Amino acid sequence: MVSFSPAAFEAFLAEDDDSAVVMLNLLRFAPDGGRERYLEYLQMAKPILARFGAKILFGGDGLPVLTTGQAQGWDAAVLVQYPRRAAFKSMVDDPEYQIAFKVGEAAIADIVLQPLRHIEGGV
């Protein structure tokens, strides 16, 4: 099941909302058709994302992990840019998105949502 950490979500929304944020989605698909359901979810979600000014920057299948340690590979990774944190919140609350979300939720066995911001003075 996909659920937000209430404390982390509140802290995310409480930070300055004056610049774009990129959401890293690490996905492990449910067996028996999870990947196909996720592609269905994407088709439903793309026009909703656009309505909130968000765009998919990258989506790709995970390849074998190259590092040692406890790292596990992911089936896919998606980077979605939102113009503001408030746009992400508004999208999550949107009734049309809630319908699409149920399809996406059925597709996923495990997920990590990691907000990212640009490194100041970096890349």
TrEMBL record:
It comes from the Bacteria. Gene3D superfamilies: 3.30.70.100. Residues 35-107 form the DUF1330 domain. SUPFAM superfamilies: Dimeric alpha+beta barrel. It holds the Pfam family DUF1330. This is DUF1330 domain-containing protein.
